[in-house]
Design a protein that fits this description.
Length: 249
Amino acid sequence: MTPGTRPMIAGNWKMHGLAADGLALARAVAAGAPSGPELVVCPPATLVAALAAALAGTPVAVGGQDCHAAAKGAHTGDIAAPMLADAGARFVILGHSERRAGYRETDPTVRAKAEAAIAAGLTPIVCVGEPEDDRLLGRAEEVVADQLAGSLPPGFGAVGGVVAYEPVWAIGTGRTPTEADIAAMHAMIRARLVAAFPGPGAMLRILYGGSVKPSNAKAILALPNVDGALVGGASLVAADFLAIAAAAG
């Protein structure tokens, strides 16, 4: 953990949740929320407004899972950052590996989306991470450094933007890098943030994601420059998500 920062535990629900079960999950998280970390739930876009209303006055904030770079326009099926903000979101996940791979999102695309999020008053959570081939070839840090350089806009530091490091090969697989590998990557990310954003870069939060679960959360969250977690599957079970949050306290 970076001294002086408040840890963040963010749940990426991905394409899970109808109205009844989504609201029940959100309320269970709010009811058991510990006082230490900042908690964020990122449901499908269909649930953002309902969860924002249900969680108003609780310690749990709501985020979106993606946004378009344009504030409005002829973009069928997309959602604009001002729409998410209008629905009650405070954060938005951008550049997740599933978007980068499945929708061929490039670093400039992610950067444009982050700029749109900032303009709409949202805090971007920008994801970076290497595929397994690059890890095996010893290129992991180079790949992530390039993603940081291409994906983070100039205003990222001033608004307290969040970086989430998720090794692509660990997402949803149950596999995680070694603690030494996580610490080394987060140290590199910190150095890049400090260089890119003098002043705020030293305190911007860097989350770890990729098969985070109650059994490994405490060890991961104790590592230097790990300021929280972006949680996938475990965020769909209130007890598991809360156990991870408690490990950050």
